[in-house]
Design a protein that fits this description.
Radius of gyration: 32 Å
Shape: rod-shaped
Structural class: mainly alpha
Number of helices: 3
Distance between the termini: 73 Å
Helix content: 55-70%
Oligomer: single chain
Length: 103
């Protein structure tokens, strides 16, 4: 794909040089030729041709984020610090019953 893009830009560059060097041509005409025959269409084509690659990258990034989120939910206290209720007591969270209101 890039080989065709490079070859097309070479052809357009040569067209622009011929336009600028021609006795009836101008630098403005060469610039317009370069822009309208080369950069604009080539940019559109490369954007369209790159869509599948951008989609694959987006899906891979979303899958990686989903994996990281699921790994974080398995280990909610992955920081290695004790929770606030257990920090001063030295006991495991299972040893302290939850505190509830009486009905």
């Amino acid at each position: 794909m890039y080989l065709v893009a490079i070859a097309w830009m070479y052809v357009v560059l040569m067209m622009s040089v011929a336009e600028a060097a021609s006795p009836s041509g101008s630098l403005l005409g060469a610039f317009i030729t370069l822009l309208l025959y080369g950069l604009l269409p080539l940019g559109i084509v490369l954007y369209i041709m790159g869509t599948p690659g951008r989609r694959r990258a987006r899906l891979a990034r979303e899958a990686r984020q989903a994996t990281e989120e699921s790994a974080a939910s398995v280990h909610p206290d992955a920081g290695g610090h004790a929770s606030a209720g257990v920090a001063g007591q030295g006991a495991s969270p299972a040893a302290d019953p939850p505190v509830r209101k009486e009905p």
